[in-house]
Amino acid sequence: MRINFLFxxxxxxxxxxSARVFPYCPVMLRTTVLxxxxxxxxxxxxxxxxxxxxxxxxxxxxxxQVNDLPIxxxxxxxxxxxxxxxxxxxxLMITATDPFMGSMGTSATDSPLWGLPLQxxxxxxxxxxxxPTGTTTCGLQTGDxxxxxxxxxxxxxxxxxxxxxxxxxxxxxxxxAGVQVQMQVPEGVMDYCTTxxxxxxxxPDAMSKWDAFxxxxxxxxxxxxxxDEKKDALLGxxxxxxxxxTNAPAACNTRQSHYPSTEVSFANNWLNSAEYVAAAHFHSNxxxxxxxxxxxxxxxxxxxxxxxxxxxxxxxxxxxLYIFSWMNNINSMLGGTLVRLWKKAMCSVSTxxxxxxxxxxxxxxxxxxxxxxxxxxxxxxxxx
Length: 384
Prior knowledge:
Elements: H1 27-42, E1 51-52, E2 55-56, E3 71-72, E4 75-76, H2 83-97, H3 115-125, H4 153-159, H5 163-171, H6 196-202, H7 204-221, H8 227-247, H9 261-279, H10 286-293, H11 315-333, H12 337-345, H13 349-364, H14 370-380
Antiparallel strand pairs: 1-2, 3-4
Helix pairs in contact: 2-3, 2-5, 3-10, 5-7, 6-7, 7-8, 8-9, 9-11, 12-14, 13-14
Protein backbone atom coordinates (compact mmCIF):
# COMPACT_ATOMS: atom_id res chain seq x y z
CA MET A 1 0.00 0.00 0.00
CA ARG A 2 1.07 3.59 -0.49
CA ILE A 3 1.78 5.13 2.90
CA ASN A 4 1.27 8.84 3.52
CA PHE A 5 3.65 10.76 5.77
CA LEU A 6 3.95 14.27 7.09
CA PHE A 7 7.30 15.89 7.67
CA UNK A 8 8.75 19.38 7.97
CA UNK A 9 8.16 21.93 5.17
CA UNK A 10 11.32 22.88 3.14
CA UNK A 11 11.07 19.39 3.26
CA UNK A 12 7.50 18.54 2.72
CA UNK A 13 7.86 16.67 -0.54
CA UNK A 14 4.46 15.10 -0.01
CA UNK A 15 2.41 18.26 -0.68
CA UNK A 16 0.07 17.85 -3.56
CA UNK A 17 0.49 19.02 -7.15
CA SER A 18 2.27 22.34 -7.78
CA ALA A 19 2.74 23.07 -4.08
CA ARG A 20 5.29 20.28 -3.80
CA VAL A 21 7.18 21.49 -6.84
CA PHE A 22 8.11 24.98 -5.68
CA PRO A 23 7.42 25.14 -1.92
CA TYR A 24 8.68 28.70 -1.51
CA CYS A 25 6.91 30.36 -4.45
CA PRO A 26 3.39 31.66 -4.95
CA VAL A 27 1.11 29.06 -6.51
CA MET A 28 0.85 30.94 -9.80
CA LEU A 29 4.63 31.13 -10.11
CA ARG A 30 5.06 27.47 -9.26
CA THR A 31 2.58 26.45 -11.94
CA THR A 32 4.05 28.85 -14.48
CA VAL A 33 7.66 27.73 -14.02
CA LEU A 34 6.81 24.03 -14.14
CA UNK A 35 4.66 24.69 -17.19
CA UNK A 36 7.56 26.39 -18.93
CA UNK A 37 9.87 23.47 -18.15
CA UNK A 38 7.44 20.90 -19.46
CA UNK A 39 6.46 23.00 -22.45
CA UNK A 40 10.09 23.39 -23.47
CA UNK A 41 10.53 19.66 -23.42
CA UNK A 42 7.23 18.59 -24.91
CA UNK A 43 5.58 21.32 -26.95
CA UNK A 44 8.43 23.22 -28.54
CA UNK A 45 10.45 20.06 -29.17
CA UNK A 46 13.75 21.89 -28.91
CA UNK A 47 16.72 19.99 -27.55
CA UNK A 48 15.93 18.17 -24.33
CA UNK A 49 15.62 20.29 -21.20
CA UNK A 50 17.84 18.78 -18.51
CA UNK A 51 19.19 21.79 -16.59
CA UNK A 52 17.74 24.53 -14.41
CA UNK A 53 20.22 27.13 -13.15
CA UNK A 54 23.09 24.84 -14.09
CA UNK A 55 21.80 21.83 -12.15
CA UNK A 56 19.31 19.03 -12.90
CA UNK A 57 15.65 20.01 -13.25
CA UNK A 58 14.01 20.92 -9.90
CA UNK A 59 17.22 20.08 -8.02
CA UNK A 60 16.63 22.98 -5.62
CA UNK A 61 13.37 21.38 -4.47
CA UNK A 62 14.86 18.01 -3.51
CA UNK A 63 15.92 16.70 -0.12
CA UNK A 64 19.33 17.83 1.13
CA GLN A 65 19.57 15.37 4.01
CA VAL A 66 18.20 11.92 4.73
CA ASN A 67 15.64 13.02 7.33
CA ASP A 68 14.04 15.34 4.76
CA LEU A 69 12.36 12.18 3.42
CA PRO A 70 9.42 10.43 5.11
CA ILE A 71 10.11 8.15 8.07
CA UNK A 72 7.72 5.58 9.52
CA UNK A 73 8.50 3.57 12.62
CA UNK A 74 12.16 4.48 12.28
CA UNK A 75 12.37 3.30 8.65
CA UNK A 76 13.16 5.70 5.81
CA UNK A 77 10.27 5.49 3.33
CA UNK A 78 10.76 7.54 0.13
CA UNK A 79 8.03 7.51 -2.52
CA UNK A 80 9.90 6.77 -5.77
CA UNK A 81 6.70 7.39 -7.73
CA UNK A 82 7.01 11.08 -6.89
CA UNK A 83 9.58 12.79 -9.11
CA UNK A 84 11.02 14.92 -6.30
CA UNK A 85 11.49 11.90 -4.07
CA UNK A 86 13.22 9.92 -6.80
CA UNK A 87 15.42 12.89 -7.67
CA UNK A 88 16.18 13.24 -3.96
CA UNK A 89 17.61 9.72 -3.93
CA UNK A 90 20.20 10.87 -6.44
CA UNK A 91 21.01 14.06 -4.57
CA LEU A 92 21.53 12.19 -1.31
CA MET A 93 23.74 9.58 -2.99
CA ILE A 94 25.88 12.25 -4.66
CA THR A 95 26.28 14.17 -1.40
CA ALA A 96 27.14 11.03 0.59
CA THR A 97 29.69 9.70 -1.92
CA ASP A 98 31.40 12.96 -2.92
CA PRO A 99 34.09 12.65 -0.20
CA PHE A 100 35.17 9.39 -1.89
CA MET A 101 35.22 10.78 -5.46
CA GLY A 102 38.58 12.55 -5.35
CA SER A 103 39.97 10.53 -8.25
CA MET A 104 37.18 11.77 -10.54
CA GLY A 105 38.45 15.36 -10.60
CA THR A 106 38.44 18.63 -8.74
CA SER A 107 34.97 19.87 -9.70
CA ALA A 108 31.96 19.47 -7.39
CA THR A 109 30.10 17.92 -10.34
CA ASP A 110 32.67 15.30 -11.39
CA SER A 111 30.89 12.31 -9.80
CA PRO A 112 29.65 9.83 -12.44
CA LEU A 113 26.36 9.72 -10.54
CA TRP A 114 25.39 13.11 -12.03
CA GLY A 115 24.34 11.42 -15.26
CA LEU A 116 21.42 9.72 -13.47
CA PRO A 117 19.49 12.82 -12.28
CA LEU A 118 20.01 14.43 -15.68
CA GLN A 119 18.53 11.35 -17.32
CA UNK A 120 15.55 11.41 -14.96
CA UNK A 121 15.00 15.12 -15.68
CA UNK A 122 14.97 14.45 -19.43
CA UNK A 123 12.39 11.73 -18.91
CA UNK A 124 10.20 14.21 -17.01
CA UNK A 125 10.36 17.12 -19.44
CA UNK A 126 9.97 14.88 -22.50
CA UNK A 127 6.77 13.37 -21.10
CA UNK A 128 8.19 9.88 -20.73
CA UNK A 129 7.28 9.49 -17.05
CA UNK A 130 3.57 10.14 -17.67
CA UNK A 131 0.91 7.44 -17.87
CA PRO A 132 1.21 6.08 -21.44
CA THR A 133 -2.16 4.35 -21.22
CA GLY A 134 -4.05 7.63 -20.94
CA THR A 135 -6.26 6.23 -18.19
CA THR A 136 -4.93 8.62 -15.53
CA THR A 137 -3.47 12.14 -15.44
CA CYS A 138 -0.30 10.92 -13.69
CA GLY A 139 2.65 12.94 -14.98
CA LEU A 140 0.54 15.37 -17.00
CA GLN A 141 0.39 19.15 -16.58
CA THR A 142 -3.36 18.78 -16.22
CA GLY A 143 -2.92 16.28 -13.38
CA ASP A 144 -0.10 15.60 -10.96
CA UNK A 145 2.98 16.79 -12.83
CA UNK A 146 5.31 15.19 -10.28
CA UNK A 147 3.71 11.75 -10.55
CA UNK A 148 5.76 8.96 -12.13
CA UNK A 149 3.44 6.38 -13.65
CA UNK A 150 3.97 2.75 -12.71
CA UNK A 151 2.86 1.99 -16.29
CA UNK A 152 5.66 4.06 -17.86
CA UNK A 153 8.36 1.86 -19.39
CA UNK A 154 10.87 4.66 -18.87
CA UNK A 155 9.81 5.14 -15.25
CA UNK A 156 10.05 1.39 -14.71
CA UNK A 157 13.58 1.04 -16.11
CA UNK A 158 14.68 4.13 -14.21
CA UNK A 159 13.36 2.69 -10.95
CA UNK A 160 16.09 0.07 -11.07
CA UNK A 161 18.84 2.69 -11.47
CA UNK A 162 17.47 4.87 -8.67
CA UNK A 163 15.90 2.68 -5.98
CA UNK A 164 18.44 -0.17 -6.21
CA UNK A 165 21.60 1.95 -5.92
CA UNK A 166 20.06 3.96 -3.08
CA UNK A 167 19.17 0.78 -1.18
CA UNK A 168 22.72 -0.47 -1.73
CA UNK A 169 24.25 2.84 -0.63
CA UNK A 170 22.18 2.74 2.55
CA UNK A 171 23.18 -0.89 3.17
CA UNK A 172 26.85 0.09 2.81
CA UNK A 173 26.43 2.84 5.41
CA UNK A 174 26.48 5.91 3.15
CA UNK A 175 23.14 7.18 4.50
CA UNK A 176 24.21 6.85 8.13
CA ALA A 177 24.75 4.06 10.60
CA GLY A 178 21.89 1.59 10.78
CA VAL A 179 19.58 3.45 8.37
CA GLN A 180 16.89 1.13 7.05
CA VAL A 181 14.96 1.90 3.88
CA GLN A 182 11.68 0.70 2.42
CA MET A 183 10.39 2.26 -0.77
CA GLN A 184 6.72 3.12 -0.97
CA VAL A 185 4.71 1.37 -3.66
CA PRO A 186 1.22 2.18 -4.97
CA GLU A 187 -1.56 -0.16 -3.92
CA GLY A 188 -1.95 -3.13 -6.23
CA VAL A 189 1.50 -2.82 -7.83
CA MET A 190 3.44 -6.02 -7.22
CA ASP A 191 6.45 -6.09 -9.55
CA TYR A 192 8.85 -3.69 -7.80
CA CYS A 193 11.15 -4.70 -4.96
CA THR A 194 11.15 -2.21 -2.07
CA THR A 195 13.88 -3.19 0.42
CA UNK A 196 17.54 -4.17 0.17
CA UNK A 197 16.77 -7.77 1.10
CA UNK A 198 13.88 -7.95 -1.35
CA UNK A 199 15.91 -6.47 -4.22
CA UNK A 200 18.98 -8.59 -3.40
CA UNK A 201 16.81 -11.71 -3.60
CA UNK A 202 15.04 -10.65 -6.81
CA UNK A 203 18.01 -9.03 -8.59
CA PRO A 204 21.16 -10.49 -6.98
CA ASP A 205 23.48 -9.56 -9.85
CA ALA A 206 22.47 -5.90 -9.90
CA MET A 207 22.55 -5.49 -6.13
CA SER A 208 25.92 -7.22 -5.74
CA LYS A 209 27.39 -4.93 -8.38
CA TRP A 210 26.07 -1.80 -6.69
CA ASP A 211 27.52 -3.11 -3.45
CA ALA A 212 30.86 -3.61 -5.22
CA PHE A 213 30.77 -0.02 -6.53
CA UNK A 214 30.05 1.55 -3.15
CA UNK A 215 32.61 -0.69 -1.44
CA UNK A 216 35.06 0.24 -4.20
CA UNK A 217 34.62 3.92 -3.38
CA UNK A 218 35.74 3.30 0.19
CA UNK A 219 38.68 1.18 -0.92
CA UNK A 220 39.79 3.72 -3.54
CA UNK A 221 39.95 6.47 -0.93
CA UNK A 222 42.69 4.49 0.85
CA UNK A 223 44.42 3.10 -2.25
CA UNK A 224 47.95 4.27 -3.18
CA UNK A 225 47.23 3.80 -6.90
CA UNK A 226 47.39 6.86 -9.22
CA UNK A 227 44.12 8.74 -9.59
CA ASP A 228 43.74 7.88 -13.28
CA GLU A 229 43.85 4.16 -12.49
CA LYS A 230 41.44 4.51 -9.58
CA LYS A 231 39.10 6.58 -11.74
CA ASP A 232 39.04 4.01 -14.54
CA ALA A 233 38.48 1.15 -12.09
CA LEU A 234 35.63 2.96 -10.30
CA LEU A 235 33.96 3.87 -13.59
CA GLY A 236 34.19 0.21 -14.56
CA UNK A 237 32.42 -0.81 -11.34
CA UNK A 238 29.86 1.95 -11.80
CA UNK A 239 28.93 0.95 -15.33
CA UNK A 240 28.79 -2.75 -14.46
CA UNK A 241 26.24 -1.88 -11.77
CA UNK A 242 24.24 0.45 -13.98
CA UNK A 243 24.08 -2.02 -16.85
CA UNK A 244 23.07 -4.85 -14.51
CA UNK A 245 20.25 -2.67 -13.20
CA THR A 246 19.14 -1.56 -16.66
CA ASN A 247 19.04 -5.12 -17.95
CA ALA A 248 17.49 -6.64 -14.82
CA PRO A 249 13.80 -5.72 -14.94
CA ALA A 250 12.07 -8.05 -17.39
CA ALA A 251 8.86 -6.82 -15.75
CA CYS A 252 9.32 -3.52 -17.58
CA ASN A 253 9.09 -5.18 -21.01
CA THR A 254 5.31 -5.57 -20.92
CA ARG A 255 5.00 -1.80 -20.50
CA GLN A 256 6.41 -1.23 -23.99
CA SER A 257 3.04 -2.29 -25.39
CA HIS A 258 1.66 1.09 -24.29
CA TYR A 259 3.81 2.95 -26.84
CA PRO A 260 3.87 3.25 -30.66
CA SER A 261 6.46 1.15 -32.48
CA THR A 262 8.61 4.22 -33.17
CA GLU A 263 9.03 4.93 -29.45
CA VAL A 264 9.65 1.24 -28.71
CA SER A 265 12.39 1.18 -31.36
CA PHE A 266 13.97 4.28 -29.87
CA ALA A 267 13.80 2.76 -26.38
CA ASN A 268 15.54 -0.41 -27.58
CA ASN A 269 18.13 1.61 -29.50
CA TRP A 270 18.72 3.69 -26.37
CA LEU A 271 19.38 0.51 -24.38
CA ASN A 272 21.76 -0.73 -27.06
CA SER A 273 23.72 2.53 -27.03
CA ALA A 274 24.38 2.07 -23.33
CA GLU A 275 26.48 -1.00 -24.14
CA TYR A 276 29.02 1.21 -25.92
CA VAL A 277 29.00 3.94 -23.30
CA ALA A 278 29.45 1.43 -20.48
CA ALA A 279 32.31 -0.47 -22.15
CA ALA A 280 34.18 2.79 -22.73
CA HIS A 281 33.84 3.70 -19.03
CA PHE A 282 32.17 6.99 -19.93
CA HIS A 283 32.80 9.60 -17.24
CA SER A 284 29.18 10.65 -16.75
CA ASN A 285 29.86 13.82 -14.79
CA UNK A 286 27.53 16.80 -15.12
CA UNK A 287 29.34 18.50 -17.99
CA UNK A 288 29.78 15.40 -20.17
CA UNK A 289 26.31 14.05 -19.45
CA UNK A 290 24.66 17.30 -20.51
CA UNK A 291 26.39 17.03 -23.89
CA UNK A 292 24.88 13.58 -24.48
CA UNK A 293 21.46 14.36 -22.96
CA UNK A 294 20.53 17.56 -24.77
CA UNK A 295 20.29 15.96 -28.26
CA UNK A 296 17.81 13.34 -27.02
CA UNK A 297 14.25 13.68 -28.37
CA UNK A 298 12.25 16.20 -26.35
CA UNK A 299 8.96 14.31 -26.69
CA UNK A 300 7.62 10.78 -26.96
CA UNK A 301 7.79 9.62 -30.57
CA UNK A 302 4.57 9.20 -32.54
CA UNK A 303 3.52 6.38 -34.81
CA UNK A 304 3.98 8.48 -37.97
CA UNK A 305 7.41 9.88 -37.05
CA UNK A 306 10.02 9.01 -39.66
CA UNK A 307 13.63 9.11 -38.48
CA UNK A 308 15.69 11.16 -39.30
CA UNK A 309 13.13 13.47 -40.87
CA UNK A 310 10.83 14.47 -38.01
CA UNK A 311 9.86 18.09 -38.78
CA UNK A 312 9.21 19.32 -35.24
CA UNK A 313 12.41 17.85 -33.82
CA UNK A 314 15.73 19.64 -34.14
CA UNK A 315 18.54 18.57 -36.44
CA UNK A 316 20.46 17.39 -33.39
CA UNK A 317 17.55 15.27 -32.16
CA UNK A 318 17.05 13.71 -35.59
CA UNK A 319 20.78 12.97 -35.83
CA UNK A 320 20.79 11.27 -32.43
CA LEU A 321 17.78 9.14 -33.35
CA TYR A 322 19.47 8.17 -36.62
CA ILE A 323 22.77 7.20 -34.94
CA PHE A 324 21.01 5.16 -32.24
CA SER A 325 19.02 3.36 -34.92
CA TRP A 326 22.09 2.78 -37.11
CA MET A 327 24.13 1.34 -34.23
CA ASN A 328 21.41 -1.08 -33.21
CA ASN A 329 20.51 -2.10 -36.76
CA ILE A 330 24.13 -2.79 -37.72
CA ASN A 331 24.65 -4.78 -34.55
CA SER A 332 21.49 -6.81 -35.23
CA MET A 333 22.48 -7.43 -38.86
CA LEU A 334 25.88 -8.67 -37.68
CA GLY A 335 24.38 -10.94 -35.04
CA GLY A 336 25.70 -8.85 -32.17
CA THR A 337 29.20 -8.61 -33.63
CA LEU A 338 29.47 -4.81 -33.42
CA VAL A 339 28.87 -4.75 -29.66
CA ARG A 340 31.26 -7.68 -29.18
CA LEU A 341 33.96 -5.98 -31.27
CA TRP A 342 33.48 -2.74 -29.35
CA LYS A 343 33.76 -4.46 -25.97
CA LYS A 344 36.86 -6.32 -27.16
CA ALA A 345 38.40 -3.04 -28.32
CA MET A 346 37.77 -1.39 -24.93
CA CYS A 347 40.51 -3.49 -23.34
CA SER A 348 42.75 -0.84 -21.79
CA VAL A 349 42.72 2.63 -20.28
CA SER A 350 44.08 4.11 -23.53
CA THR A 351 41.62 2.37 -25.88
CA UNK A 352 38.72 3.30 -23.60
CA UNK A 353 39.82 6.93 -23.77
CA UNK A 354 39.90 6.72 -27.55
CA UNK A 355 36.51 5.00 -27.49
CA UNK A 356 34.98 7.86 -25.52
CA UNK A 357 36.34 10.34 -28.05
CA UNK A 358 34.88 8.30 -30.91
CA UNK A 359 31.45 8.13 -29.28
CA UNK A 360 31.51 11.87 -28.81
CA UNK A 361 32.29 12.36 -32.50
CA UNK A 362 29.66 9.85 -33.61
CA UNK A 363 26.90 11.34 -31.46
CA UNK A 364 27.69 15.04 -31.69
CA UNK A 365 29.41 15.53 -35.05
CA UNK A 366 27.09 14.85 -38.03
CA UNK A 367 30.05 14.93 -40.42
CA UNK A 368 31.72 11.97 -38.69
CA UNK A 369 31.06 9.09 -41.07
CA UNK A 370 29.61 5.87 -39.67
CA UNK A 371 31.92 3.78 -41.88
CA UNK A 372 34.86 5.58 -40.25
CA UNK A 373 33.56 4.42 -36.88
CA UNK A 374 33.37 0.82 -38.08
CA UNK A 375 36.87 0.79 -39.54
CA UNK A 376 38.41 2.33 -36.42
CA UNK A 377 36.66 -0.15 -34.13
CA UNK A 378 37.86 -3.06 -36.26
CA UNK A 379 41.41 -1.72 -36.18
CA UNK A 380 41.36 -1.14 -32.42
CA UNK A 381 40.58 -4.80 -31.69
CA UNK A 382 43.95 -5.85 -33.10
CA UNK A 383 45.76 -3.99 -30.32
CA UNK A 384 44.03 -5.99 -27.58
